[in-house]
Specification:
This protein is an alpha+beta fold. Helix content is about 20%, strand content about 25%. The chain binds iron/sulfur cluster (SF4). Iron/sulfur cluster binds next to loops.
């Protein structure tokens, strides 16, 4: 296979990278959301050697290398396979992702379920792109807002349960094995009955099958992973979900670091880290880079017609509510509405209030300085 089969807008993987303004985007899907210390060092070295020297964390808890030259893609792929960071076949990489709550412990229900599920993904028929599983069976739910279609969770009654995304209630199950069987059965049912209809579970409005009664409520949701001390190490933030390879390398160099757990919330849990600030990693919950959404923009994406992140950083403290700055109407950084959405079109900025990047701007055709004046920011 060559990298030439890429398609614009394709959800990038390592085997099927996506072209961007600064080269290829190569995505690594860490197993159990975890990277060993040596794997992190290999990713950092690969990013510096074959990429732009920056590493992205996606809202699905994946790691992306940017700026990879076409001619270097094969060398990068080989290095990632040798480090056991990606599957050795494109077919295996195409299987649905399994997102697991990042505070899993060896041999707890989350770990066992994620392992069993991962081993059986090959049983599934082809499913629509982006469809995946979440294993989130701790005493509170962490992954409620993370994208996933078939969820293994903890019920209020204490038992495990399986819930179709978008439904309030789910089905109680007796054991981890039954939870995995049921989640796979649900995925199979979804694939076989999807037809030309909704391609994500939460958009399905038809009744669920009889064997999946909506009977129990999941435990409460706590969709946050505070920066700072954690029983497993320290949680750091990534501004706009991005970190330089140099900063990440430095963060894991101490030998007491065991590895890194990635999260869908622009946060990394460095296992065994010393409690100290690290250059390039955020420790302040109030940093706008944690809550403002901005895609890479110009010149890093070839579909962008305007720069985004520097502007977002400057405007974030000045604009009330959730801010999204998007290089084009595709809105990669945020699919849901924001209080203020600034979108690039034809080299100018438009503004949408309470909306998404693909909606019609209420104010359009602004230069960057006009935009700053509009918001009273000089
Ligand atoms: S939203 Fe941003 S990253 Fe996505 S295609 Fe448009 S410019 Fe590129």
């Amino acid at each position: 296979m060559t990298a030439s089969g890429r398609v614009k807008g394709w959800c990038p993987g390592a085997w099927r990278p996506m072209a961007s303004g600064d080269g290829l985007i190569v995505r690594v899907r860490p197993r159990f959301g975890t990277l060993s210390r040596s794997q992190v060092l290999i990713i950092c070295d690969a990013s510096r050697r074959w990429g732009s020297g920056t590493i992205d964390l996606t809202n699905r808890g994946n790691v992306q290398l940017r700026g990879v030259h076409e001619q270097d893609w094969r060398s990068l792929l080989t290095a990632l396979i040798e480090a056991d960071l990606i599957d050795s076949s494109p077919e295996a990489e195409a299987r649905p992702p399994v997102l697991v709550a990042p505070d899993w412990q060896p041999d707890d229900d989350n770990y066992i379920a994620a392992q069993m599920l991962s081993e059986r993904l090959g049983e599934l028929p082809a499913l629509p792109a982006k469809v995946g599983f979440a294993v989130d069976a701790g005493p509170v739910r962490l992954l409620t807002d993370a994208p996933a279609d078939f969820r293994i969770e903890r019920a209020m009654t204490g038992s495990l349960m399986v819930r179709a995304d978008g439904r309030e209630l789910g089905t109680p199950v007796e054991s981890v094995g039954t939870a995995v069987n049921t989640a796979l059965r649900l995925a199979r049912w979804f694939g076989e009955s999807a037809g030309e209809g909704a391609r994500r579970m939460k958009r399905r409005r038809d009744p669920l099958p009889d064997w999946l009664p909506e009977a129990v409520r999941p435990v409460l949701s706590q969709p946050s992973f505070p920066l700072g001390k954690h029983p497993l190490g320290l949680v750091y933030g990534l501004r706009f979900g991005q970190v330089s390879a140099d900063a990440l390398r430095k963060a894991v160099l101490p030998e007491n670091v065991r590895g890194v757990r990635v999260t869908p919330w622009r946060r990394l849990l460095i296992e065994g880290a010393h409690p100290e600030p690290l250059d390039g990693l955020l420790t302040d919950e109030g940093d706008p880079g944690l809550t403002t959404d901005a895609c890479p923009g110009k010149p890093f994406c070839e579909q962008a017609t305007v720069p985004t992140r520097e502007l977002a950083q400057q405007l974030a403290g000045e604009i009330k509510g959730r801010l999204h700055v998007s290089g084009c109407p595709k809105g990669c950084a945020r699919q849901r509405p924001a209080d203020t959405c600034i979108v690039g079109e034809g080299g100018r900025y438009g503004v949408i209030f309470q909306g998404r990047a693909d909606e019609t701007p209420e104010v359009a055709g602004l230069t960057e300085s006009q935009l700053r004046s509009y918001f009273g920011v000089e």
